[in-house]
Amino acid sequence: MTDPDHHERDDHERDDDKRDEEERDGGEFGESGPFGGFGGFGASGDEKKPDEQDTPYVSGRPRIPVPRASVEDTGLPLPAVPPAPPQLEHQVLKSLLGAWALAACSAEETAAVEDHLGGCGSCADEARRLREAVGLLQRPDSLDLDPGLRTRVLESCLDRRPPRVPVPDWAAAYDAETARLDALLQDFGDAEWHTPVRLRWFDGSRPAGRRTTVAGVIAHLLAVDGLIALALGLDDPLGGTDAGPPTPTARTEAYWRACHVPPTRTVRAPWREQSHGIVRTVSFTGGGEGGLGVPYGDHELPLRDAMTDRAFECWVHAEDIAEAVDYPYEPPSARHLHRMVDLAARLLPGTLADRRRAGLASPARAPRRLVPAGTPGRTLRLEIEGSGGGEWLIPLDSPAALGSADHEVAHVALDGVEFCRLAAGRVSPDEAAAGQLGDREAIRDVLLAAASLSRM
């Protein structure tokens, strides 16, 4: 007879043996786990074998990854920690608001102030008001000096102490314009001195031009200013070079030919020395009060007009240079600009007569006879607006005739700077923004005559 307790013990022993065997085989579901992967959820069948794992394998247990390496163990520098703003008292920070609004604080003070503004409402309001006030104080003006500043400073100084040897009023424009051009040139490097510049003028009936460099322009001014130097008894910058007729173009070409290499920055010193010598000489001697004749080849100008002519050309070529190097350049002061406009207006009747003799202008009309010298004839009113403005009556039929408002047949209005650029050949007669009234033919003749005043 079998013992029931003995059978029950045997069953329990068989169950224990079965469980031990399953544990050795990887559990109830084997090594693949319940979801077909090695102890994981959805792992693929190409999972690494236990002996291929990067980490120690424990049979029947999930893989445990090793800890990631710390940045301290890599040998790389630790990221920089931004310094904390300095701890300043409230009154100190409040006193810095004005400097902060002007962007005059150091980096540490700026950080401290801006950190404080985030938590202090009264200081934030004060900082906003100060920033708005700074915006009203700062005007978006050019950093270049006012062209009239030098004149005002000199006049102020001379009011306090008159000069022992004053510069004549008719030479002041030349003195100012050469000084302005020299100030433009003083910071030029070698590259700027060799920057291409195109000289432009109006050759009777069409625009003309010549290419050179910044140094070539200064050589041109040196050669042509030499006409005045010679008239005053100073040294000729051309030396013994044969320039042919004493015209601006001939002298410039002769100087350029005499240079074995293209002019360089070394031309600045003799040009500036010559301009100083001219101003000094006319100041000491007076130049016959400006009546001394200066030959220009086919015509002659009184010294006072020649000095204005050279001041005008110095300004025009300074603008050419400034345009070539992409730098702003202001027109002359109103007093000097007016003198330049006046010279051009006084030269118009003679230039108009020269063009008429050359067949480039319409003949004189009714009355079809010569106007006696000193008597009024057909007249054009030239009105110059803006800086250096005024009105001039231009006789149309004869240089010796008188301009008369009673005989006015046309009226032209031009801006002062625009008129000077027309007379310099920088603006064509067709492009000149002119208000016109009256005889269109007379107006066109006068505008063409103004452009014909230009030369290289």
UniProtKB/TrEMBL annotation:
Keyword Protein biosynthesis found: no
Keywords: Transcription, Transcription regulation
Compositionally biased region (Basic and acidic residues): 1-17
Domain of life: Bacteria
Domain called Putative zinc-finger: residue spans: 95-124
Protein's UniProt keywords contain Transport: no
Residue spans of biased composition, Gly residues class: 29-43
Gene3D superfamilies: Anti-sigma factor, zinc-finger domain, dinb family like domain
Region (Disordered) residue spans: 1-83
Protein name stated in the entry: Zf-HC2 domain-containing protein
Organism: Streptomyces cinereospinus
Lineage of the organism: Bacteria, Bacillati, Actinomycetota, Actinomycetes, Kitasatosporales
